[in-house]
Amino acid sequence: MKLAVDQDKCCGAGACVLSAPEVFDQRDEDGIVTLLTPEPGSEHHAAVREAAAMCPTAAIDVR
To answer: What pLDDT is recorded for position 49?
Structure first.
């Protein structure tokens, strides 16, 4: 699995950080999401897919 976050689309809702805190983080200054790892291990795949599904702006690309 490979991930990307379109930071231009991200609204900073943070649901992804709550779903997969080992994979996603938010910048303190504006709340925009960043990746801690662009290729998470299989133990995180379900949480990442849930986070992508919950993203209100579809800013998370899962491949």
So the answer is: 97
